[in-house]
C-alpha cells in the first residue's frame, strides 16, 4: 500500500478520526465513573432511593 | 422485554449494562475488518490514494445526519408521547453527533485540498453541513444552560425539529445547486455507481461506525440516567438537611 504524495492528507484524516473517537470513549468512561462516585458518596451520606435500592444499584 | 418495559429507566439501565460489552466487541471487530479492507482497496484511477479518505469521511457524514434524525425522533417522543427516555436519548446523542459532523467536515476538507485545490468552498453541501455542526453546538449549549432537564428537553426538542429541515437540504444540496461536492454515489436512484472494490469496504466501515454510534449512545444514555439519579438524590439530601433542627 503506497499513499504517494497524498500521504499527509490521508494519514492526518485517519489519525484525527482515531483521536476524536478515542476522546469520545474516554469522556464517556470518565463521566460514567464520576456519576458512580457521586452515587457512592450519596449512599455513604445515608440518602436512599424511593425504591429502597442502593443508589449505585443499576437494576 | 417489550418497548413499554424500556420506558422504565431502571430496566433500560439493566439492558444497556448487559448489551454494552457485546456491542463494544462487535464494533471493535467490524472496525478492524473495515480498516483492513480500506487499506487493501485499490487506488482510484482519478483520485489516486486519496480515495482512502472516503472510507472514513462518508460514514461520518452519514452519521452526522442520521444522529440528527435519531434526535428528531426522540424530540417527537418528548413532545408527543412524553416518553421518559426520549430526552435522555436526545441529550446523549448530541455530543456524539457533533463529533461525527466535525469529523465529516475536517476529513472532507483534507480530501478536498488535493482533489479540488482548496480546503473549503462556500458551496451548498459544505455550508449546510457546517450549519448542522453549529446547530449541534447550539443544542449542547441549550442543554447546559437550563438546569432543569425537563424544561431543557422541551426547548431542545423544538430546536431539534426545526433543525431537521436542514437534513433534506444537506442530502439534496448536490442536486438542487451547482456544487463542488460530488453527487450521491451510493444512496441514489439506479443503485450505487461505486465499483465493488470501493463499495464493500465503504459499507463495512458504515456498519462499523453505526455500531460505534449505537455503543457510544447507549453508554452516554446510561450516564445521563445516572446523572439524573444523582440530581434527584442531591435534592432529597438538601430537603432532608433543611428539615433537620438547627
Which secondary structure elements does this structure contain, and how are they paired or packed?
The complex is a heterodimer of chains A (59) and B (246).
Chain A: H1 7-44
Chain B: H1 3-6, H2 9-40, H3 54-81, H4 86-116, H5 124-145, H6 149-163, H7 166-176, H8 196-243
Helix pairs in contact in B: 2-8, 3-4, 3-6, 3-8, 4-5, 4-6, 4-8, 5-6, 5-7
Folded structure, characterized:
The complex is a heterodimer of chains A (59) and B (246). With 59 residues, chain A is mostly helical. Chain A has a domain at 20-44. In chain A, 64% of the residues lie in helices and 0% in strands. Chain A contains one helix and no strands. Chain A has one helix spanning 7-44. Chain A is rod-shaped. The model of chain A has no long low-confidence stretch (mean pLDDT 86). With 246 residues, chain B is an all-alpha fold. Chain B has one domain (29-180, 191-243). Chain B has eight helices and no strands. Chain B has helices spanning 3-6, 9-40, 54-81, 86-116, 124-145, 149-163, 166-176, 196-243. The chains are: A mainly alpha (59), B mainly alpha (246). The interface between A and B is large, with 35 and 40 residues.
Percent of residues in helices of chain A comes to 55-70%
Ranges of chain A where pLDDT stays below 50 over 5 or more residues in a row are none
Distance between the termini of chain A: 50 Å
Mean pLDDT of chain B: 90
The gross shape of chain A turns out to be: rod-shaped
Quick one: how many beta strands of chain B? 0
**Helical segment count of chain B:** 8
Our measurement of the CA-to-CA distance between the termini of chain B, rounded to an integer number of angstroms, reads: 49 Å
Helical percent range of chain B? over 70%
Bin the strand percentage of chain B. Answer: under 5%
Radius of gyration of chain A: 21 Å
Strand content of chain A: under 5%
Structural domain count of chain B = 1
By DSSP (H or I, 4+ residues per run), the number of helices of chain A equals 1
Task: Give the helices and strands of chain A as they follow along the chain.
Answer: H
Largest interface between protein chains, with number of residues from each side? A-B, 35 and 40 residues
Which structural class should the secondary elements of chain A be placed in?
A: mainly alpha
